[in-house]
Amino acid sequence: MNTLYNYIGDKDKSIEEELLKDEKEHEDILDKIKMQKRLNINFKGFEGKLQELIDGIRTIPNYNNLKGYVREKILPDDPEMSYKKLSVHTGIHQGVALVILYDLYTDKMEEDLKELEDEDIDLDFHYG
After folding, report:
1. What does the DSSP 8-state code read for residue 60?
2. What is the distance between the alpha carbons of residues 59 and 61, in angstroms, rounded to a whole number?
3. Fewest C-beta atoms under 10 Å: which of 59, 88, 92, 122?
4. Same domain for 53 and 115?
5. Number of domains comprising the chain
6. What is the pTM of this model?
């Protein structure tokens, strides 16, 4: 015979199982994002020099203004814009467009990672 105490106990167990499942999914998402950030972006022939090129592009005087303009004005209308299309649309070199899109992508990943880590802290606080 099922009593109220057994029913409550079963519900508590299923809630705990759901929380563990959600926590595992959360950790899997964090791991995927962290792995994406570690991808090697060096191309053949640029071994060790690609980062120098990217850093050089980032030192262009109006780079941050361009990046902000692309983030605020262009990508909301076309979030999947390619670097070639961005280059034509803004009149900048394709290499600069590529680095801007790369930086905006990594910025977004870092924001998502931060939000997920904050959620993890909140979950630990509420359920820990």
Report:
1. S
2. 6
3. 59
4. yes
5. 2
6. 0.56
